[in-house]
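new request in #modeling-help
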Amino acid sequence: MSIDYKAEIERLKKELDVTVVAHFYQRDEVFEMADITGDSLELARKCQADSNPWVVFCGVGFMGQSVKVIAPHKRVLMPKVADCAMARMIDASYFDDSVDYMVERGIAKENILPITYINSDASVKAKVGEMGGLVCTSSNAFKIIEKGLESGKKILFVPDRCLGQNFANSMGLKSCVIGEGECDPKEADIICFNGFCSVHQLFTLDDIAFYRERYPDIKIAVHPECDPKIVEAADFSGSTSQLIKYVNDLDPEQKVAIGTEYNLVNRMRERNTYVLSSTKPECPTMNETTLEDLYLTLKSIEDGEPINEIIVDPHTVKYANLALERMLAIK
Ligand code: 13P
Ligand code: SF4
């Protein structure tokens, strides 16, 4: 007999002290089962404030890990421990190499303030925390960089070169990317690691031109993980929650083409929205989690044999926590 996953998930949620969390990029059927949804910052804040001892996180690895780091007493399980491809572009040794790059070019280590995008492994966040740095997300990067600049130090921004450059541009700061042309840390305010999101690289100026030609009044709204030339050509750029708010605040007749992950954009179809790409911009790892995975994870708690638990070693928790808490303290 086949299992009615939705009914079983509802039953398990009622019977267990568990909170189901989902990012906007999750498949619709998984997203609908969540108690908590939001962008990366909202998910971190809401999970920290939540009182249930169990968290089942439908998202990518760094998201579940971040909950474990800011609330180590919680048991965090992930139906699929799927990694964000951008987060995998940097590890602790690449981080050290980036610091060395700056030191070799005349910036003393104590004059470097590292900021890591939340899309990074806890080991990278720990390195950042140990150096007095902090985490940012796409919704608070402006504030966090502003705060970072108060230190008078050079900012090393990892791993997303696009986010680093986009916020540098919006703040009138000079940025460069390690490994891309001449990147002299003495000449730039923000020195970026060369990571990127392959999903958000799909959006092109041709896509924007296509929509603007077809619908001259259309608005273009994109995520700041897009290339700087796309963000510059767009009408709005923001985190997933900020994109949803932007679209919901528009006149319902206003057409808007959105440059971010497909599942989120598709959910807003009734709002006169278009996917800003001829290629379906799906995040493969976000899409890995199925309703069956969610059911099996909840069932494993009921059976007393939890699966896919997120474990972070105490040293990493200690320093990654510093970097995350420094961010959460900034309202
Ligand atoms: P948000 O914090 O905007 O939800 O972004 C997460 C992400 O991974 C975007 O690709
Ligand atoms: Fe990572 Fe890009 Fe997927 Fe976001 S869309 S989780 S940055 S790979």
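bot summary: The domain at 205-275 is CATH 3.40.50.10800 (Rossmann fold).
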